[in-house]
Amino acid sequence: MAAKGTKFIHGATPSNIAPTADGKYEVTFTNGSTDVFDTVMAAAGRTADTAGLNLAAVGVEASPKNGKLQCVDEQTNVPYVYAIGDVLQGLPELTPVAIQAGIMLARRMFGGASEAMDYKNIATAVFTPIEYGAIGLSEEEAIEAYGEANLEVYHSEFVPLEWSLSPERETDTYSGFCKVICDKTANMNVVGMHYLGPNAGEVTQGYGVAMKKVSPQCGQSRHGTARARVLRPDCLTFARHHLHHLRASTSGTSRRPSASTRPPQRSSPPSL
After folding, report:
1. Are 119 and 97 in contact (CB under 8 A)?
2. Which residue among 21, 143, 172, 183 is buried most deeply as judged by most CB within 10 Å?
3. At 265, is the secondary structure helix, strand, or coil?
4. DSSP category for residue 99
5. How far is it, in rounded angstroms, from Cα 160 to Cα 245?
6. Which DSSP symbol is given to 207?
7. What are phi and psi of 175, to 5 degrees?
8. Helices (H) and strands (E) in the chain — how many of each?
9. pLDDT tens per residue across span 235-264
10. If you compute the radius of gyration of the chain from its CA atoms, what whole number of angstroms results?
11. Where are the beta strands (DSSP E) in the chain?
12. What is the model's pTM?
């Protein structure tokens, strides 16, 4: 994005926005700098529109900050009041998640089912110009949950095949990236995966199936990822190939291939 002209300001947030005489906006940042823009757009998030429902009349407790509801298996603190979707506190704000939760709630209430919605390890993606996908824990969350000494973190920088065909991509500077966080105490089970590159939604969704395969915690291991047979030389193939070739590090728990040790980019499909 920076190469295409997008200007990033790091370590600062807007502290004041003032209109100028020519109809533009002067923005002052917390680091003391100022700049003038034609338009200012604030991505401020959203709140749950529950204030007008008079939920307090039946005893339902909503967050005073954002109006969301703290639920267990979609059930509020009032046993006969249920909620699904973005109104749930601390759960993913994703349409497919809300649909699935609603289906499973209806089956439990009216179909005799007992299975509850599993909100763990839900794949998600951010569709920025270079897409980002994630499933499971961030590195910080994993350290808090498992302890840093029990984790192995793999970093892979790779060039997706579709990028290698265009020299304008500057792949030596702007490559794809993948991080895999593993639990060393449980056969290198994958507890978090983060991917930056094309088709992040599809890539992450595919790994989402693998991470749900055995248990709600994580059924996919780093070894299984490395041994998986590939279908064609796509970006997922190159990310997996690089993870397979990472060497053990003698210091620390984070492994990142340097430019000199990264496997060379393949000019032909990897063997099946």
Report:
1. yes
2. 183
3. coil
4. H
5. 17
6. H
7. -110, 170
8. 6, 9
9. 555 555 555 544 333 334 555 544 433 433
10. 23
11. 14-19, 25-29, 34-37, 124-126, 132-136, 151-158, 176-183, 189-196, 254-255
12. 0.68
